[in-house]
Structures are given as C-alpha cells and as structure tokens.
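Checklist before submission:
- one chain only
- standard amino acids only
- sequence pasted in full

Submission:
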Amino acid sequence: MKLFVFTGPTLSADEGRTLLDAVFLPPAAQGDVYLAAREKPVAIGIIDGYFERVPSVSHKEVLWALSQGIHVFGASSMGALRAAELAPFGMEGVGTVYDDYRSGRVEADDEVAVTHGAAEDGFRATSEAMVNIRATLHAAERAEVISPGSRAILERLAKSLFYPDRRYPTVLSLAKAEGMASAEVEALRAFLPTGRVNPKRQDALSMLRVLRERTAQGLEPKRVRWHFERTDAWEYIRANAERRAQGPGTEGLAAVRG
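Returned file contents:
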C-alpha cells in the first residue's frame, strides 16, 4: 500500500517514519502532488509546502489527485490551508490549525509561514510560525506567567513582524522597547524553553496517526461527485511537472527532489 507525505520544517521525515510506513518527500511545490498522484498511491498527505519564491501546490493538482481516486489529507501548514480551501471537494483536514482556517478564526497565509534551511540541514525552521507564537502566549497566560493585556500586546507585536523575522527573542525585545514590565518579559523568557507550544507539529503527528488508522482499516478509492475540468492553467501545471520529471538523469518524483 503506497502512501506519500510531504513534510519539512514542521516534522522531520525520520520522525514521521516512526509513526507511518510511507514515502516521505520534501515540502511540496507546484506539480509535486500531480507527480505523486501519477504513482497511484492510496493516499497523499500534505504537511509542508513551498510558496513565495517557488510556485505553491495548486488547487487543481489536488483536485486531479482526488478525481483519480486518491485520498488527500492536509494538516499543519500548507496542508491545512489547502484542506480548508478544498474541504468541499473532498480533501480531508486534520488538527487545530486546519480547524481554525476552516472556521475562519484564522485567515492569513502568513500565520503558518516560516523560513527554513535546505534539505541538507533537515529543513530546520529558522523562524517561528504565528500560530505557534499565539498558542504559546495563551499557554503562558493560562500559567499566569503574563497578564491578558501583555499577551495581547505580544501577539500584536509578533503579528506586526514580517514572517521571516518572527522569533521569540525579537518579540521580547520589542516588548521591552514598548515598555512592558521587565519582570513579565523575563518570566516569559524563562517559560519558553519548556513551555512553548507547537500546534503545527502536533497536527502533523495527528495526521500521520489518522493515515495509519484509516489505511489499517482499509481505504477504498476516493469517490467524488464532481467532474474534473481540464483548463489551460491545469495543462500548463501538468506539462511543466512532466518536463521536470523527464529531466536528464532523473525519473518520476526524483526530478523534483534535486
């Protein structure tokens, strides 16, 4: 039974393999889900995906995979975004980040965005996702490390930063500059090493458990009630992916993995 999972800074492939027998691939870019679907897996899981400087996973390739009878799951980051957008068409979302996007409690794409290192560095995250910062600040408030007012100020300061600059030391420095009580700033600094919360990672683990349970029960081919429309935009995405897959010395998914 073949399964593909796209992951990167949210959850390492090595950790993923301890929970699920699957082919773990780097963050998905445009065309990658199409190439994975060509291999006819039972399911595809999307956790992380590229954006900004690299074209993101398109809605059409997810729809194409679903139309081919493949179950597509999403969580945590790009997966949660696409699952919230495509839930009416059969993509399945898992976790709190997905729930927040689906309900409208969270809307902006930058809530899950992070910068990260290269594959050689294990895609190590070099900034902090806003959803993680917000969850951590709420945990600190519940633990009475910071007051509700300070939590609101810290959230505002973190949100005001461009996503690559979102790091706890930066947020704490801004809080001090804004006049927040030094005692609260230092209490939060002391809380962070053990108290920080990472809903993106928790959701990724939840999605892998769901995939494991669903496949163990036996997944029938996905059935959809809509017709996949082959548009010019879709043909461009498909043809571009095919060209990459047929590059010199490469075949199949290897072409987009470098």
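Reviewer check: The CA atoms of residues 20 and 212 lie 6 Å apart.
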